[in-house]
Amino acid sequence: MALKVCSRLAAVGRIRPRAAACGSPSSGAGFTVEHDRQNLRFTAAPSSGAGSPDCAVLLYRFTGEGEVDLLSTFVPEAFRGRGVAALLTQAALDFLVEEKLRARVSCWYIKAYLEEHRDHGSGHLLVS
């Protein structure tokens, strides 16, 4: 059973519902990615608007001047194997470039993604 992360966090007042999230949405692989700057996260939910409260999440935090830590990704079981974590990771990398930020990476998935996509030139975004 997939966890209903977004709806559970919204229920305890930790996040706003997806429709009210900040940032402009982008889409791919049948999912819409939104950047919720207030809650320091990226979310991905099905683009179809099928009404599912589930969403995938990438969390980050600011750790210093011009620096963030990409903390974790979570993808509900129902969405796994569809490239959703990659969409979230790419959105976070785009954010780093747009805001001229550098990142530490705590998330094992993002580390693996960056290793696999080394040829895309994202190495300059990382803090050693």
From TrEMBL:
Origin superkingdom: Eukaryota
SUPFAM superfamilies in the record: Acyl-CoA N-acyltransferases (Nat) (SSF55729)
Domain N-acetyltransferase: 34-127
InterPro entries noted in UniProt: Acyl_CoA_acyltransferase (IPR016181), Gcn5-rel_NAT (IPR045057), GNAT_YJDJ (IPR031165)
Record family assignment: Belongs to the NATD1 family.
Protein name from the UniProt record: Protein NATD1
Species: Tetraodon nigroviridis
